[in-house]
Request: fold
Amino acid sequence: MKNTARLIGREEEIAKLDALLQSPQAEFLAVYGRRRVGKTYLVRAYLKNHIVFDITGTQNGSRELQLHHFFDEYRGRVKNRKRATVPVNWHQAFECLATYLKSLQRLKTKQVVFIDEMPWMDTPKSSFITALEFFWNQHASKMNNVLLIACGSASSWIKKKLINARGGLHNRVTQRIKLLPFNLHETALFLKKKGLDLPHYQLLEIYMAMGGIPFYLNQATKGKSASQIIDAICFSKTGLLHSEYEQLYHSLFKNADHHEAIISALAAHPQGIIRQALAARTKLSEGSLSRALEELVDCDFITVYDPYINKKKESVYKLTDLYSLFYLKFIKPNKINGKGAWQRLLQSSSFAAWSGYAFENICMMHIQQVKAALGIQGVHTMTNSWVFRASNGLPGTQIDMIIDRADNTINLCEAKFTQDNFVITKKYATQLKLKKSIFRQVSQTKKATFTTLLTTYPAIQNKYYLDEVENEITMDKLFEYVM
Reply:
């Protein structure tokens, strides 16, 4: 199917959709991912000529309201309206849908049933899942021309109720798509298509503030610099991201206050903290903490890193949703300042600290581009950051990113976000040498260790650079297309 004119990226997802359209059997696809990431747009834009039923759940809507909307869509699709009254339960609603689909069985091409924000339809005591089970097992699975698509931003619900279901839907999902935010390459393409032809440094600034979320990026307007765009979208009282945070977590999770408490705690420790520290800071019960952490990881707001060297094997939780970090660091404390606040904040010391952590996160997110730049795409690697607390006479230190390679090599990566060419001083060269020495001593590694700089603009290759740096990767490499 060639309908990609308006789509940026999404090559793997489109390949899956094409395979499902060509499948000789009924298919059940689960699509999930972070709010505003473009799930609905992907399905509707690419499959518009195949969709025969399209319904979206209503947030906080009652069962009766959901059924009413479902039946409105049914009546709009069916010409001979045999049923005149709204179904009283989901079993009746899905029976209507099954009858409609049977009337389309003569059609050879795939007929797509798209149920968007399905988690919102599963209201308490609604028996939605039971009815969906019966609909698929008794009807849709026997119709070879049907493609049922269940979509939702509540990734934990999709995984628990559909993908990892234990009841009648066990192993019924035939394919899944987890839609991720745009990477830097896709972000540049997306904004260029909107008429924004900005240099990589400014694109990086925008990405650090809002990530690769298409819905956020779509607010950018041409003819403005990155700082103007950020100011208008994030700090103007009418800007989308000025108030998005208040809706973000409550639209996805029950007891969203728990999730926000975790996000706030992690924002205060951008290098990440262990679970025990999170429990102490949030004061959540063990059960509430476990549920909220699982849901935040599933929705890609936080990332869990296993320690590289840690006798206790305590995992580190890190806030990696760029918008949430930016909101809590800058937007929330400056709401009363309004438009123009970002221009002033760019000169602050807090900007320097935040931009360093944000750039480090972005480098971790673009590990495939980093590996390509190092020429090790085909080498198995493990990626992590490392913090060493002073012990046994050794001073404390930290390494932004460690790439542990199967070819007996480790890259010790230092991320440096600067507005100009980075300069390694004698003092910083001494720090780099000490970090490598401490790492070797603590890890007892026998692998080769290379100091690798991750920079915005190329570092000045002075004496200290030549003595201490084996590799350098600039931001331009992060924007490259990698298969």
Q: What stands out?
A: The chain has three domains: 11-178, 182-359, 366-478. The chain has a mean pLDDT of 94. The longest helix spans residues 426-443.
